[in-house]
Amino acid sequence: MKPTIESSRIEIRIETAAMDALMVRLFDAIDEANMAWVIAADQALRKTFGAALIDLVPSYTTLLVHYDCQQATHTEALQLINKALSGLTPVDTQAGELHDIPVWYDESVGPELPKVAQRAGLSVDELIEQHCQHDYCVFALGFAPGYGFMGLVDEAIATPRLKTPRSKVAAGSVGIADRQTAIYPLLSPGGWNILGRTNVALFEHAKRGEPLLRPGDKVRFRAISRDEFEADGGDTTPMEERS
């Protein structure tokens, strides 16, 4: 039987992920309201494990606790998790930073822009407006340094991933996959529907050890013109030339 912890309105389950890692599962479904609990758990676990903690990775519904086997046995790690999360209460998610991200939405750098609009029964301008009208929660970091998984995209514009991923997606590309949205921090493969491009340098922050986006932050996309994008040093090379 998997250990569980009753804490207020949630049932926390603990699963073995490796000989020195435990997965703490708080929820089964993705929801923006989860983050108040995930962040609270993150803070409590870091404080309780102290030097015995090697890494802690929060995500949509879980937290991966990687601990030092020389400082804590499996049983002791379970006890530390129980101690940290007993009586857990959600934090104030308003404490996260709100990031304003300027985006040049254009088919030349966002090849799926017309496709996603057509699928949603919207004009391109209406799609852009839809994508910009919500403050997206940063649920997790992964895939590449500084890459933040954000959501939830309105169901009206949610779009499945590409059947065939691109071998190269330009740094700064802003895309949608199902009800998630994200920014590619550097040139990499990818299968998301690309709508546009930003010049915000996520990877530069990650290289300094301090990612721009953190779980619990919010991102607000803002449409800008090509002139504004170029004036800010944006790369207008069409996506096709990077494929």
List keywords for this structure.
single chain; 243 residues; 31% strand; alpha+beta; 23% helix; 5-stranded antiparallel beta sheet; 7-stranded mixed β-barrel; 6 helices; Gyrase A, domain 2; Cyclophilin; 2 domains; 14 strands
State the CATH class of the largest domain.
Mainly Beta
Strand arrangement in the largest pleated sheet: 6-13-10-11-8-7-14
CATH-level-2 architecture of the largest domain:
Beta Barrel
- Report the β-strand fraction as a percent range: 25-35%
Give the low-confidence spans. none
Give the helix tally. 6
CATH homology group of the largest domain: Cyclophilin-like
Mean pLDDT: 90
Helix/strand-derived class? alpha+beta
Distance between the termini: 49 Å
**CATH T-level topology of the largest domain:** Cyclophilin
